[in-house]
Amino acid sequence: MKILMEIDLRDYTFESEEANAIADRIWNENAWDVFEMNLSEMYPEGISEDGLEDLFAHDHEAVLELAEIETEIDY
Questions:
Q1: Helices (H) and strands (E) in the chain — how many of each?
Q2: What is the mean pLDDT of residues 29-49?
């Protein structure tokens, strides 16, 4: 059985410190609306909680790109 629910990502509590740090950066950059819009386009059927957690915890660059926030380049 699959249960779907609408949530406001601003209120979502991530499990990992890494995911929370990225969420805080999106919040501080005032980019939640852009992130949610782009995430909805990328996942029109929605994303699972595990998928969202994994995305934030392990693919920081992709999350920041979805939020249209520039990533630092290390040389």
A1: 4, 0
A2: 93
